[in-house]
Amino acid sequence: MGIASRSVGRSAPRLLVGAVLAALLTMSTAGAALGDTSTTVPSSADSTIAAPTDVYIRDVAADVGLQPHSYNPLWASPDIKVCHTAVECAVSQNPIVGITNYIFVKLRNPGPYGSGLGNGTLRVYRTTPGGGATWPGAWTQIGAVSVPVPAGTTTVTIPWNGVPGPGHFCLLARWVSPTDPMVFEGPDISLNTRYNNNIAWRNVNSVNLFVGQPQVRPFAIGNSLTVATRNDLVFTPVGAPFQAAGGRIIADLGPTLFERWVAAGRPGEGIREVGRNQVEIVSQGSARINDLLLNPGERPEFSLIFTATAATTRPFTLHVNQAGPDKEGAAKTDLGGVEYQITVGQQG
Questions:
Q1: Cα angle value 253/200/61 (rounded, 5°)
Q2: Residue 329 phi, psi (nearest 5)
Q3: The sheet that has 333-345: what strands, in order across it?
Q4: In terms of DSSP bridges, do strands 312-324 and 333-345 run parallel, antiparallel, or are they unpaired?
Q5: 142 in helix, strand or coil?
Q6: What is the pTM of this model?
Q7: How far is CA 285 from CA 169, 240, 247, in A?
Q8: Which end of the chain is more exposed for a tag (fewer CB within 10 A), N or C?
Q9: Burial 175-199 (b: 16+ CB within 10 A, else e)
Q10: What are the backbone dihedrals phi and psi of residue 25, each rounded to the nearest 5 degrees, phi first?
């Protein structure tokens, strides 16, 4: 949704934006120049501007299109799904490398800031799973389709041709329309998602383990600011902890991140060093690897290693996210993460 041509009812959410918009509107222009030119807010003096429409994509199940909102996590949208065939699957799947997969996005109309038929383009992007993915430079477009969106829920399918390895990605969906423009788009994707109801983000990954056979997942943390920042990795079980069933989670930080962590004094909670460049998550509650230094514009990648010692019928869910400042001098906040859905089987 945009800041131009809005009714009085939009004023309350705009007040909530307050100082954040004041600080970020200057970089909105740069973001639009680097991204889609169609996101530019039209001049209010243009007499041909149509009435505002409001198509939105949910960030969480309770999302009704208000912007900004305070729901978390921002990065597990229920309205974005990956399937292996052109028939929509019941539950989102990890894409299969090298073949055509399909992305299904649900567009909802109307939201609280407009009405009528929505006309625009749905664009879907990918990046390495994790946090701090600077917009637009860290994102690669997968596909786009122009569609009308009538009242109700419209499901749009975008083919994903030739999925590259290793097959684990974060996805971003953007609804781009001249009658439903963005509030702003700066480099921080978390702020963009929270303040624009036509942007949604999905970072959900399945980890299907067999006893004694580790699986590795890439994870990236980034700094979208122009100053160096210190960031935390936060590990939070949702429900029963994976470790309680004999599971192990190890973060292989690689030499650069590990050396920076050592230089910071090895700060953290619920963790222990277990090998060269490796830190194991031992807490069955929340755990943290703290104060990882990131230079301006940097987004290093490391690995998470999952292993299991016993099969179980119980599924496990783990949230891993990056906590860091979203603007200079700010306190640490959620900059993005991944929901890992873990199962453990016994190979026959």
A1: 105
A2: 85, -5
A3: 204-210, 333-345, 312-324, 229-238, 287-294, 268-269
A4: antiparallel
A5: strand
A6: 0.84
A7: 26, 9, 14
A8: C
A9: bbbbbbbbbbbbbbbbbbbbbbbbb
A10: -60, -30
Q: In angstroms, rounded to a whole number, what is the distance separating the alpha carbons of residues 316 and 338?
A: 14
In the numeric block, which tokens belong to residue 337? 């993460």
Place of tokens 């208000």: 66
pLDDT value, residue 9 = 38
pLDDT in tens, 330-342: 999 999 999 999 9
Structure tokens at 195: 């303040």
Q: In this predicted model, what pLDDT tens digit does every residue of 33-44 receive, in sequence order?
A: 333 433 333 333
348 pLDDT band (50/70/90 cuts)?
low
| Tokens matching residue 29 | 């222009």
**CA pair distance 300, 320, nearest whole angstrom:** 16
Q: Give 3-state DSSP helix, strand, coil % of the chain, rounded to 5.
A: 15, 40, 45
Q: What Rg value do the Cα atoms of the chain yield, rounded?
A: 21
* Backbone phi and psi for residue 248, each to the nearest 5 degrees, phi listed first: -130, 140
**Three-class secondary structure of residue 130 per DSSP:** strand
Gap between the Cα atoms of 10 and 17, Å rounded: 11
Residue the block writes with tokens 């690669």: 140
Ranges in the chain annotated CATH 2.60.40.10: 8-202, 206-345
The correct answer on CATH 2.60.40.10 for the domain covering 8-202 is yes
Tokens for 202?
């999905």
One-letter-per-residue 3-state SS of 37-79 = HHHCCCCCCCCCCCCCCCCECCCCCCCCCCCCCCCCCCCECCC
pLDDT on residue 30: 34
- The whole-number pLDDT of residue 42 equals 37
Nearest to 303 by CA among 285, 264, 277, 335: 277
Q: Which architecture, in CATH terms, is 206-345?
A: Sandwich (2.60)
